[in-house]
User: Which sequence fits this backbone?
């Protein structure tokens, strides 16, 4: 049953509301008074006594606040502010510790505890130091009690207002506390180095795409972008309807829309994976649980490791930086009633045939995030989109900035949908380059993990030394210590043409 906190200002009706709440439970009641007859509150005490049922047991709280909770009856403690004033007056030791003991004891009782707390911090700051100390202590105690409560109610002018749960009212954590989540490979390339750090296909956009981009700039660059045709083309590509497509400024923006659109109470992010999704959750004050894949188990997904109360789960497939491709069944096993599953498929179009993709499956609790940045080699355009059931897609659009995708990016979406054979050829090239890199790493005796994307995760005995050696040879690879679950001895190597692969394998060997 736990603890219910009832807050309110003087004469707000908080005590009467709390008394009615306890009376409606139909249980024996112990009333814990925190003011005694010598406190100068005789008239107020008398009014409270006449209002309460005569069969309620009344006790007066002393220094041991938890000790008055009793046994199996419901308990009403009225009120915490008066008790704290007595604690300061009598010099009772560690009043906040006593409040914490009561909150902990209330959580273990079979019968409920209702705690009335005076709201004293909304007025003018008192002039005398004693009253200021009381106001400060009361504010801290109220936060402590509310954090440990099952329910919290603010009574204003006799009207109860339910306060949100702690998880949905958490202040955003400063992004500086999560700086590692915002480290990306493009910032880790020494000037002039051969790029095996960024997981974008080499060579820039293909000729057929370049032509479409130039045409779009000439035809549409002078007008505000209109996404209708690109949305229809994207929907047709995946066998979805237009109201299931949300075009975004790269896949990263789609992930950043999630906390504002879905308002999750508790999110689980499966790592190692693209870290911007967790950064976005922290920026919006959403509590996050990290669920770590085990390298020894091939980075397999363990649905049982996800907290049961997580109402949002984010997973990459294929995952970066491991390149692990999970079967669709493993992703679907993450679904629960009341939960939304988000699958980041930013690298799926580099996997021939796209096995395991959920992009074409219209599920009412699954959002698929896609990107054309990697395959089309256009990271500067920011081309991404989300595929979601219409209600979730509408929620994403509601928090999306206007003109999220520019006219040239929309042209890339249309061109990709119109050229499936060219996209398939890019995926085959990505596989051939990765397999070539894998053979060379194996020949060099370097431990690697299976990958389905255009990069390979390796583990070496001395990661910093290997990274320094690569930099000295004019080669950039991606250090992976900033990915949760990995260490400084993990490096991600993007596959390139055979000669480039041969050089990076030789240097790492």
Assistant:
């Amino acid at each position: 049953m736990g603890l219910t906190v009832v807050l309110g200002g003087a004469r707000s009706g908080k005590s009467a509301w709390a008394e009615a709440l306890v009376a409606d439970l139909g249980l024996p009641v112990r009333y814990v008074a925190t003011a005694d007859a010598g406190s100068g509150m005789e008239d107020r005490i008398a009014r409270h006594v006449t209002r309460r049922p005569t069969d309620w047991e009344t006790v007066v709280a002393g220094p041991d606040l938890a000790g008055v909770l009793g046994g199996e009856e419901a308990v009403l403690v009225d009120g915490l502010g008066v008790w704290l004033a007595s604690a300061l007056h009598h010099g009772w030791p560690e009043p906040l510790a006593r409040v914490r003991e009561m909150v902990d004891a209330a959580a273990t009782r079979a019968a409920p505890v209702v705690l009335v707390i005076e709201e004293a911090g909304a007025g003018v700051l008192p002039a005398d130091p004693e009253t200021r100390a009381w106001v400060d202590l009361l504010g801290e105690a109220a936060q402590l009690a509310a954090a440990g409560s099952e329910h919290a109610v603010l009574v204003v002018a006799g009207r109860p207002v339910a306060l949100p749960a702690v998880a949905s009212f958490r202040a955003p954590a400063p992004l500086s506390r999560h700086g590692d989540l915002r480290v990306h490979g493009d910032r880790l390339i020494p000037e002039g180095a051969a790029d095996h750090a960024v997981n974008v296909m080499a060579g820039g956009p293909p000729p057929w795409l370049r032509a479409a981009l130039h045409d779009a700039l000439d035809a549409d660059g002078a007008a505000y972008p209109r996404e209708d045709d690109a949305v229809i083309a994207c929907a047709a590509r995946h066998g979805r309807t237009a109201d299931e497509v949300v075009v975004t400024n790269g896949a990263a923006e789609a992930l950043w829309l999630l906390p504002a659109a879905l308002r999750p109470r508790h999110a689980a992010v499966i790592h190692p994976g693209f870290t911007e999704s967790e950064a976005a959750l922290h920026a919006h004050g959403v509590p996050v649980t990290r669920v770590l894949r085990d390298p020894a188990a091939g980075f397999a997904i363990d649905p049982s490791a996800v907290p049961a109360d997580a109402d949002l789960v984010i997973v990459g497939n294929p995952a970066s930086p491991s390149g692990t491709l999970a079967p669709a069944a493993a992703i679907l096993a993450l679904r629960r009633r009341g939960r939304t599953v988000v699958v980041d498929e930013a690298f799926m179009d580099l996997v021939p045939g796209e096995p395991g993709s959920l992009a074409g499956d219209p599920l009412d609790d699954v959002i698929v995030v896609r990107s054309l940045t990697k395959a089309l080699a256009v990271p500067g355009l920011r081309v991404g989109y989300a595929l979601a059931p219409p209600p979730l897609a509408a929620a994403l659009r509601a928090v999306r900035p206007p003109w999220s995708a520019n006219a040239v990016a929309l042209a890339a979406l249309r061109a990709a949908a119109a050229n499936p054979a060219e996209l398939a050829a890019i995926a085959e090239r990505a596989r051939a380059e990765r397999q070539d890199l894998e053979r060379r790493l194996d020949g060099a005796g370097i431990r690697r993990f299976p990958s389905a994307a255009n990069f390979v995760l390796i583990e070496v005995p001395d990661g910093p030394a290997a990274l320094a050696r690569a930099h000295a040879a004019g080669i950039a690879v991606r250090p992976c210590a900033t990915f949760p679950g990995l260490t400084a001895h993990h490096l991600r190597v993007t596959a390139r043409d055979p000669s480039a692969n041969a050089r990076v394998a030789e240097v790492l060997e």
